C-alpha cells in the first residue's frame, strides 16, 4: 500500500494484516480524496487500521491527525507508519470508539469512518458522533461501508453523495 498524492506521494504504508481490518484500496482512497478536493485542518480517523486515510489526508494538506482503533496491533502499525513517514502532528488512541467520543473534546474538520462491517448500525454510530464534541457545523464525514448497507442519517447531517466500488460504498456527508 502506498500514499497516492501530496507531499508523501509514493511512500509505502505498512498494512495491519489483521482479519478484523479492511485496508482501503489505493484506487478507492484516491477516488475519495479526489472527491473531497481540498483537505485541511484537523482529521479524525476513528477506526484507523493502518492509518492510511489519516496519512493520505496529511499528505494532501491536513495539519493535525487523530487516530483511534480498538485493536492494539492496528494502533502499533499506525504509529509505526506515522513515525516512518516523519509525521509529528498526531495523537493516537487505543480505545473503543464510544469511549473515544466521550473523552475527546475538540472538533475536527474531517472525520473518516470505516468500522468493521458487523457494526452496521450506521445511524447509531453517526448519532454518537454528532452528539459528541468532535464535530462542528461544516465537519465533513466520509463513511465506508458494505455496498448493500441501508442507512438513515441523523437530521443534523446533510447527505452529499454516495459512490460504490464493488463490495464497498462510500458516503460523503457534512454536519449542519
Task: Describe the overall structure.
The chain is of the alpha/beta class and 176 residues long. Helices cover 27% and strands 23% of the residues. It contains 5 helices and 7 strands, in the order αβαβαβαβαβββ. Strands 3-2-1-4-5-7-6 form a 7-stranded mixed beta sheet, with helices on one face. The longest helix has 13 residues. The radius of gyration is 15 Å and the shape is globular. It starts with 25 loop residues before the first helix and ends with a strand. The relative contact order is 0.16.
Short summary:
The chain has 176 residues and is α/β, with parallel strands linked by helices. It is built from five helices and seven strands; from the N terminus they run αβαβαβαβαβββ.
List keywords for this structure.
seven-stranded mixed sheet; alpha/beta; single chain; 5 helices; 176 residues; 7 strands
